[in-house]
Amino acid sequence: MNKYEEISKVIADEIDRNLFAEGDKLPTEKTLAARFQVSRETIRKALKNLIELGKIYNIQGSGYYLRRNGLHMASTLNKFSSITELIQNANLTEGDIEVQIFKRKPNDEEIGMLNINKQDSMFILERIRTANGESIVYSRNILPQSIVGQDFAEYYEPGSLSKYLELKYGIYIVESLMEIQAVREEDVLPYRLKLSDPPLLKFIQVHYDDKANPIYISYDYMRNDLIRFYVRRT
Amino acid sequence: MNKYEEISKVIADEIDRNLFAEGDKLPTEKTLAARFQVSRETIRKALKNLIELGKIYNIQGSGYYLRRNGLHMASTLNKFSSITELIQNANLTEGDIEVQIFKRKPNDEEIGMLNINKQDSMFILERIRTANGESIVYSRNILPQSIVGQDFAEYYEPGSLSKYLELKYGIYIVESLMEIQAVREEDVLPYRLKLSDPPLLKFIQVHYDDKANPIYISYDYMRNDLIRFYVRRT
């Protein structure tokens, strides 16, 4: 066994035994090199090995982080992407639980945001999105019946809503305008997500198709202990 | 007085008397047109008038919002801008209070993020940023002494740090990589900001100059009851 493999094994064992106290962050290359009395080159090989083993991941310019339970995800918000893509990019398996669909009249805000008729009806799709079985997002989508037809609830399929709109209706969702909010006392969350009281971020988005028409609204409460969010500002 | 001026006056009075119950949002154009028995064109003129009077502001695709106490701000995060600009764009007056500057050795994270030497020292600039005297952001900037020199604390001036770096050192901050976080229990906040227990968002940024060198780190706890944040995702 090479030196770097030995080191990688020691660290992997420590990760499995929850020995890293410092949040979810690994010590720096320099600190590890000093501890194991080897060059930083060797440490880098060991860390690369740990990444390949799925034990850690690297954030450019920030350091190495434990992939505890393999459940860490990251998203750069400038690029439009779905929750399905977020989960799949982390090599995790997505699921939908506690799915509810109901219909009601639009409120003034929705009429304004989606530029629809007061007489239209809205489908509300509520669900918890999971990654490898763990609840990571509570999501509420609001779609006009004039777009998805009155039998939406019967034909709805789990997974990406934007993908579904593409396949079934030929609607291509290509961008969104997102508002990011801190979660308030008055936000109502499903018991399952409140259970562990995780830090949450609230995303409110209007989704637009390739003709710049507003198509639907989404409210997503994202678990910030498992998903990290970045914005590149230029 | 024109019809639209009359309507604008009625609404302005109602705003001053806090008659709008529905959060901070104004009824839609359609609702207002029905209420005042005029065309939407006339309502739009009245709303434009209210914007010019500083009573309301418009968020594209979302609606009209009250500028209660004149203290509402909005920022689209894709574009790099300073807190000074955020405040000035809302025609408010900025201020700095509870300013503290101290010096310490860099930690491993800072060494990694700013690509600096372990022997360097870091200036920590902590302050509360105010808009028209109201505390809106608790801000912590971390700058290497190798960039600002050892007399930074003596020459520091209130206001925009990036502007200061530009004027005094010829360093042009043009972009940043920002992480957005929910505030955690363990985040330590100044008493003055915790007082009213406002919803907060935590922004962590590495700021880069026009040669793509990382220059400084900022931690900003932003009051989300007064400032709304948007991201355009494409």
UniProtKB/TrEMBL annotation, chains A, B:
MF terms (GO), sorted A to Z: DNA binding; DNA-binding transcription factor activity
PROSITE patterns assigned to the protein according to its UniProt record, in alphabetical order: HTH_GNTR
InterPro entries given in the database record: Bact_HTH_transcr_reg (IPR050679), Chorismate_lyase_/UTRA_dom_sf (IPR028978), Tscrpt_reg_HTH_GntR (IPR000524), UTRA (IPR011663), WH-like_DNA-bd_sf (IPR036388), WH_DNA-bd_sf (IPR036390)
Domain of life, per lineage: Bacteria
GO biological process, one term: negative regulation of DNA-templated transcription
Domain HTH gntR-type: 1-69
Record keywords, A-Z: DNA-binding, Transcription, Transcription regulation
Name of protein: GntR family transcriptional regulator
Organism encoding this protein: Cohnella lupini
